[in-house]
Amino acid sequence: MGYREKIKKIIDNINEVIVGKTEVIEKVIICLLAGGNALIEDVPGVGKTMLVKALAKSMGCDFSRIQFTPDLLPSDITGVNILNPKTGEFQFKFGPIMSNIVLADEINRTSPKTQSSLLEAMEEKQITVDNVTYKLDEPFIVLATQNPIEYEGTFPLPEAQLDRFMMRISIGYPSEEEEIMMLRRFKNKNPLESIREVVTKEEVVKMQEEVKEVFVDEKVEKYIVSLIAKTREREEILIGASPRATLHLLKASQSRAYVLGRDFVTPDDVKDVFVEVISHRIAVRPEVKIKGQTETKLLSDILEKTAVLGVKLYV
């Protein structure tokens, strides 16, 4: 647990750029240290791309940005074999996926075929091109952004793609005081330019390994499985959370405990990350959605009505 101060420095660094969103920043770091990928979904202009750039600058990791457009090809992401005229042999030219932190900007603006080129990298930390497999460097995380309200020229992410994201995170609008503070910080300069590295790539990998050692009691494991089961039992939910979601919820809970400086998971850790881990993996019945029910409301209700350690939290 010796990296708590390093984590705090990363959060403080990003807070210089993204004002008043400490909880959101923590969720992104939780996802990173758990070895997952994050989908940052919100309206334009709230700082999605800025958040990812600030995280990358705070860490000694390679960073690449892929601007997703309708004409983007899978080879533009993974790379392509090119003939070397001097040797007469093909050489593989790596694409931008060969990095530690990959910003998939406006991921829903490209075709499902191109989106699917990320699946292997996100799940197995490797890419396969022309039957040759290349391992990606650790740490590796895809941080994708998308606009949830713009439909023209966009392609909804398929369920298989969504399930590869450990968390779906929303930044939200700043308060009046936070927006005034933002104006003052950005009035004469861009704070992003002054951000310095506060943690190395090797330290990030070490933290990821330590997260795996965070203790999870058997009763907490049962609580996690019980929550997931409820998403499959509710009549309002057409498709419940997958077994991969169960594993991601466990890992995110371990990471949350680690970020807070503990070496064991509590039910509060599970509850804190539950909505972000599960909300994009379930499908609410259309007739229920029409009545105003959302994934978030249903999951919050499941949290409220699910017992922890055999004791009802709410009556």
UniProtKB/TrEMBL annotation:
The keyword Nucleotide-binding applies. Residues 38-167 form the ATPase AAA-3 domain. InterPro entries: ATPase_AAA-3, CbbQ/NirQ/NorQ/GpvN, ChlI/MoxR_AAA_lid, P-loop_NTPase. GO terms for molecular function: ATP binding; ATP hydrolysis activity. It comes from the Bacteria. Residues 230-300 form the ChlI/MoxR AAA lid domain. Keywords: ATP-binding, Nucleotide-binding. The keyword rRNA-binding does not apply. Pfam families: AAA_3, AAA_lid_2. Belongs to the MoxR family. This is FIG022979: MoxR-like ATPases. It comes from Thermobrachium celere DSM 8682.
